[in-house]
From TrEMBL:
InterPro entries: 6-blade_b-propeller_TolB-like, SGL, SMP-30. This is SMP-30/gluconolactonase/LRE family protein. Binds 1 divalent metal cation per subunit. Substrate binds at residue 105. It comes from Acuticoccus mangrovi. Keywords: Metal-binding, Zinc.
């Protein structure tokens, strides 16, 4: 029996250039996300529909949430702790300082509480990006190179598999992930998505171990089975979905961030949800989003 999914609905229209990194806060009943180009950090109160927005001190590629409510962010200047509502900003490291053409892009907090983030050459001049891991304020290199445009960082339900996608090559790889040390080993191909609609963008894994991938310029989400095969293709009413996560009281609502980036006015007129956040109610729950510095379980 296939998935049961409701009709996509718009829950926030913030006219983001490139909305990214939706994070559900179950305790507060809020959804947060960023616009990586304005830049902006948004928080949606899902019961009232109210939206709060803060402007970060630099463009952000990604972020995670700490137990105090502060954010660990990967921005143009490096890794930092930022409190959006007070403005407090503490630089922790600048891991790409030796590669001035590199910027930090996709990142996520893992089930062990570590923040994993990858960089890219902003000119896409080559596979010059690297993967880093932040734990207790220390930034450690875990993959040196072979990254064009990093996306789709997420973990299997048991936390022992790390998924990592590249939007330039349209390949999603899997690694063995050591929850005790954060080490990654045994890189292998999970899915070659080059023949599928759009490009590989943000991803999340559901409680059944299936990976949901937003397809930028493909107008859909693709659900991959644990063996890497395509299970479902779910159309969305925008050309450029950027990321997907699970939220709601029982984690069965798909929240999809979207982009208006390089979309002409005629195309925007036919997709009024572009630049906003879309919700799709489903029947398969996702996984709770971990907090930085706090191991799950």
């Amino acid at each position: 029996m296939g998935l049961r999914l409701g009709k996509p609905r718009l829950v926030a229209q913030t006219e983001d250039v490139i909305g990214e990194i939706p994070v559900w806060n179950g305790a507060a009943g809020t959804l947060s996300w960023i616009d990586i180009l304005k830049p902006a950090f948004h928080v949606l109160e899902t019961t009232s529909g109210d939206i709060r927005t803060a402007v970060p001190p630099e463009k952000l590629g990604s972020y995670g949430v700490t137990s105090s409510g502060a954010l660990i962010v990967g921005g143009r200047g490096g890794i930092a702790l930022w409190e959006p509502w007070t403005g407090r900003f503490e630089r922790l490291s600048s891991p790409e300082a030796d590669r001035p053409d590199n910027i930090l892009n996709d990142g996520r907090v893992g089930p062990d509480g570590r923040f994993v983030i990858a960089s890219m050459d902003k000119r896409l001049a080559g596979p010059n990006g690297r993967m880093w891991q932040v734990s207790e304020g220390e930034t450690t290199l875990v993959q040196d190179g072979d990254i064009f445009l990093p996306n789709a960082i997420c973990w299997s339900p048991d936390g022992t598999t790390l998924y990592f996608g590249d939007s330039h090559t349209n390949l999603i790889h899997a690694y063995d992930y050591d929850l005790a040390t954060g080490a990654i080993t045994n890189r292998r191909l999970f899915a070659d998505t080059s023949a599928l609609p759009g490009d590989c963008d943000g991803a999340s894994v559901d409680a059944e171990g299936y990976l949901w991938n937003a397809r930028f310029a493909g107008g859909c989400l693709i659900r991959f089975a644990p063996d890497g095969s395509v299970d479902e293709i779910v159309s969305v009413p925008v050309d450029k979905p950027t990321h997907v996560t699970f939220g709601g009281p029982d984690l069965t609502t798909l929240y999809v961030t979207t982009a208006r980036f390089r979309t002409d006015p005629a195309d925007l007129a036919r997709q009024p949800m572009a630049g906003g956040v879309i919700a799709i109610d489903g029947d398969v729950p996702g996984l709770a989003e971990p907090l930085y510095g706090v191991a799950a379980g």
